[in-house]
Amino acid sequence: MALQKFTDDMHIIAKLDDEPNDVGGLTATELKAKFDEGGVALQRYINETMLPQLETMGVEQAVLLPENAGGFKYMRLNGDKVLEVSADGSTWQATGSSGHLIFDKYGKQMPQRSRTKFANSEVTDDGTYTIVQGVKDVNGVTPDTDGNITLSAGSVGAVGYNTPQALTDAQKALRSADTTGAITATTGLDGTADGQYKWVSAALRLENTVAVRIRFAAPSLEGLTVKVTMNGRTVTYTADNITDEGEGYFNNIGAGEYGDTVTAIMEKDGAQIAETLTYSVAAYIREAVNKESTTEKTLALVRALWSYGESAKAVSAS
After folding, report:
1. Which residues are 131's β-sheet partners?
2. What is the mean pLDDT of the chain?
């Protein structure tokens, strides 16, 4: 819809006689009206023609001024020719139509920029979506949708890793001895079993920290509490934060704690039910080392992890 143009002749005063009162016979009141005629014509066009047309086109809703809850007072184009708005003229943000809303893994909204950089990932565009692939191992192993590599005692996958450059023979000679064969830790269940409330699995999760993942089954979350403890630190799960998969995590396990025990219990209305589960990073490594189907890549990974932990303890004790 095109706006109707203002076409009135505005040469109102120029068309008057040089002596409009004497020659043209205009009264003083009529002469004053001639001076006002142009402004009145513009006023009538704006109020009666242009504004109604703009409202019909939806401009009133498309452009929200501060008094209409737009939330900004200033607008500008940045160096990338992207429209930015600001409430104070100091802090600027790209408009919502100029890019993606960005949230971190915990749901916290980040500042919206006209440029986004993805590190250690693969970014493609299919014409409709910007697609960001998470960290992908060069040997073909891709983490899950949360960016995690989960090593399950029940099904050990092939996990590869690479150093940024080839190691020299001198560097290789500094590697720690493999002591995984001496690990005695195991997964433990102690106490009275419950037919409805029970532990399903325990696994090792590698993200940016080392973590133990515990999965359990329960007929109802009402009154249920799951407590996962290690070295005096306890993580408590209730109906408010237990996932649909029935799982809990103990994160940030230190390198010197790989041999220490993680204990998990379930409580119903404050009283313990089911068995007490014990697990550890060492228990996973022992099972992986002793399992015939474990791949060489996974063996290399868990042995390196264990050697790192043993070295960390030795350094701490020195």
Report:
1. 124
2. 78
d(CA 189, CA 278): 6
Kindly state the helix (H) or strand (E) to which residue 188 belongs, with its residue range.
strand 188-190
Determine how many CB atoms are found less than 10 A away from the CB of residue 47: 10
Tokens of 34: 């001639």
Cα(59)–Cα(147) distance, rounded to whole angstroms?
44
pLDDT at residue 51, rounded to an integer: 87
Nearest in space to 34 (alpha carbons), one of 1, 11, 4: 11
| pLDDT interval class at 279 (50, 70, 90) | very high
CA–CA separation, 38 vs 42, rounded Å? 6
Render the burial of 74-95: b for 16+ CB within 10 Å, e for the rest: eeeeeeeebebbeeeeeebbbe
As a whole number of angstroms, the distance between CA 303 and CA 318 comes to 23
In a 10 Å sphere around its CB, with 0-12 CB exposed, 13-18 middle and 19+ buried, how is residue 117 labelled? exposed
What pLDDT, on a 0 to 100 scale, did the predictor assign at position 145? 46
With a cut of 80, say whether residue 314 has pLDDT above it.
no
| Contact call for residues 75 and 92 (beta carbons, < 8 A) | no
β-partners of residue 125 are 130
* 166 confidence band (pLDDT: 50, 70, 90): low
Distance CA 201, CA 66 (A): 55
Rounded distance, CA 16 to CA 174, Å? Answer: 103
Burial class (CB in 10 A: 0-12, 13-18, 19+), 224: buried
**Nearest to 285, CA basis, from 138, 151, 114:** 151
Q: The tokens 């932990």 sit on which residue?
A: 309
Helix axes 281-290, 296-317, angle to 10 degrees: 140
pLDDT average, residue stretch 103-122: 72
